[in-house]
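Worked Example 4.2. Consider the chain below.
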Amino acid sequence: MISLIILLPLVSALIGLYFITLGLWDLREGVNRNQYIKYMFTGLFLLIILTPMLWFFGSTLFVSM
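Applying the procedure from the previous section yields the following structure tokens:
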């Protein structure tokens, strides 16, 4: 259980960085701007919103045990 508390935020951050990289690559190609927007917002959501929430709720879950 403790390994999930540590592993989930890290995986979320890595997937967020991957989506941001895909978005920047799509922007570089310049073919589909909508795909760039989808990748970028998904990556930023995972990196900025979800990762801190997982850290916070994971740490409160760990303290309550």
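The chain has a mean pLDDT of 87. The CA atoms of residues 48 and 59 lie 17 Å apart. Compare this with Example 4.1 before moving on.
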